[in-house]
Design goal:
The chain has one domain: Zona pellucida, ZP-C domain (Immunoglobulin-like), CATH 2.60.40. Helices cover 10% and strands 40% of the residues. It is built from 2 helices and 11 strands, in the order βββββββββαββα. It has a 6-stranded mixed sheet with strand order 3-11-10-5-6-7. It is globular. The relative contact order is 0.23. The longest helix has 13 residues, at 154-166.
Length: 167
């Protein structure tokens, strides 16, 4: 799983932490270690959390659940038809509340020739019976993501001055 500079998914971002501006679009690609046309990837769930080890945390922010977007800026570019999945979303206010955030995605890996697989079903708002299709699940974590240093507002600068005078 990796960040990219744009929706062309041509240039990967290697910097860590990945520093973004509020409302900036972030582009992510999840792929198999090696290209395999006999398999397809499907994005099942993606969640952001300040804790890289606990995504059930009450502070977690869900971008995607059961293949269904939960964030109105989330957009799937490719999922369920290739050996990679691509999506984008805007850096959200959630980043203001935490010094850093991690992205965790659960993906399903299915045989490309199984057209009844969960990977081919897309968004599913309720549980349905399994039709005997097989798939594997993998969980990936990417991050940390932090906000770029933004210029302090006039109120914050005033608060800093008051704190120095009180000290």
């Amino acid at each position: 799983m990796a960040f990219y500079t744009s929706g062309s998914f041509y240039q990967q971002i290697y910097e860590s932490p990945y520093k973004v501006s509020l409302n900036e679009y972030m582009y992510v690609q999840v792929s198999l270690r090696r290209d395999d046309s006999s398999l397809v990837l499907f994005l099942d769930t993606c969640v952001a959390s300040p804790n890289p080890h606990d995504y059930a945390d009450y502070r977690a922010y869900y971008l995607l659940v059961n293949g269904c977007p939960r964030d109105n800026t989330f957009s799937t570019h490719v999922s369920g038809s290739r050996s990679y999945a691509r999506f984008s979303f805007q850096a959200f206010k959630f980043l203001r509340a935490h010094p850093s955030v991690y992205l965790q995605c659960k993906v399903l890996i299915c045989p490309a020739n199984d057209y009844n697989s969960r990977c081919r079903q897309g968004c599913r708002t309720r549980k349905t019976r399994s039709l005997g299709s097989q798939h594997q699940m993998a969980t990936m974590v990417l991050g940390p993501i932090t906000l770029k240093d933004v210029e302090k507002s006039a109120v914050e600068r005033l608060e800093d001055k008051v704190a120095k005078v009180d000290a």
